[in-house]
Write a structure and sequence with these properties.
Elements: H1 2-8, H2 11-39, H3 47-74
Helix pairs in contact: 1-2, 1-3, 2-3
Length: 76
């Protein structure tokens, strides 16, 4: 959806999207470090998929945000 959204934005919008995405990546990486710090205090294999799910949810949320922006622009 990043690519689709970029394709329907003007140059200024594309620049804003790129800046936003780069900042989101920094935040995502910081959140992943926090997730790892929290779950590293727990023992057991059940926490491995919980870490993966938490990380996946971060990415899913962002993808859905970009999808919503894209759909807002292209709706008739």
């Amino acid at each position: 959806y990043y690519k689709l959204l970029s394709g329907v934005l003007d140059k200024e919008g594309q620049a804003n999207l790129k800046k936003s995405q780069l900042e989101w990546i920094k935040l995502r990486d910081a959140d992943i470090k926090l997730i790892d710090s929290v779950y590293s205090k727990k023992e057991g294999t059940m926490y491995v998929p919980m870490v993966a799910d938490s990380i996946m949810e971060l990415t899913k949320k962002r993808a859905l945000e970009l999808k919503a922006y894209y759909e807002l622009i292209i709706e008739k």
